[in-house]
Amino acid sequence: MSSQGIRGPPYEFIHGNNKQILQMQKEAYSKPMALTHDIFPRVLPHVYSYIKKYGKNYLSWNGVQAQLVITDPELQGDSLVTSESEKRARQRKLANYAFHGESLKNMIPAIIASVETMLEKWKGKEGKEMEVFQEFRLLTSEMISRTAFSSSYLEGEKIFDMLMKLSAITGRNMYKAKILFIGKFWEPADEIESDKLAKMIHDSVMKIVKQKEEKVMTREADNFGRDFLGLLLNAYHDPNEKNRLSIQYVIGKTKQEQRDNIRYIALHHDPDLWGDDVHLFKPERFAEGIAKATYNNAAAFLPFGLGPPSCVGMSFSITKTKIPLSMILQRYTFTLSPSYVHAPLPNLSLKPQHGLHLLFHSLD
Questions:
Q1: Domain residue ranges of the chain, discontinuous segments joined by +
Q2: Which co-factor is required (predicted)?
Q3: Which of these, 49, 72, 127, 275, is most buried using a 10 Å CB contact count?
Q4: pLDDT tens-digit readout, 93-128
């Protein structure tokens, strides 16, 4: 790697760079930051530090595993537009169907119903402080549960809650070195808990799958439903074997669509790509398209990935963001509460470390 100009932090026996990364994170997360969107140094202090020291592409060590980190937009684009097997591409195409056109349109009433439930709880709280991160977490849980599991949405909310717990465990163990031979004799508590949660999620989804299949077999229903899981099940039972999805793919997509990541934060906060105003909220920068906004580096803006690995739930995610915002803005104006503390924290996706406290004022 060094002969190709790739450098990075030195390897430390067993731990790699993990001890250094955890120390950087501990220091960064111990104090809040100014009210600005210049969040990169706080959210990913190690990536920020290594880029400054070693360049936009560098080699780091997660335990004994080497990782090539690429934040150059040209190389990033090349690394993302990868080939797929014919079967994988066909499965993605079928999964995409669940989130487009008529399928997506059929999910809108469930999204609206979820938002109305939340807004009903907000009545009488005008002018009072509300912690909305938790409100939106519950809203997201209900929207995904209703659209993915329909009449079984209460069971879906339990699955979503287990996924959040699994994400938290994954996040806090991301930079802990794993020593393979010790794992044969002793399992950490988090690993035991994550295995337990993964099995419970699998069993819960399979329970709903079997309920749907039983209703079709007994002619109580003539299809598996128009929710996300039902559409994937229709593909699983497709009489044409070439169009069929595996049951593990069905379960995997149900889990995958509820995860986000922050892999591209370095690209999204790079002044070389966006200009010196990269940290300002300027939606008008996109008025003439992404290429113009990024000085002809379209691969610098990857909110849903790029190429074959891109998120199949992109349209659904945008819809489930637009609808709640439009319904809220029809009823309220809001401002930050004086008690708000600006401290973005990564946990697979970003979250406010001390909550998001807002003051809402009714437009009526």
A1: 85-261+311-324
A2: heme
A3: 72
A4: 656 655 666 777 888 898 999 999 999 999 888 888
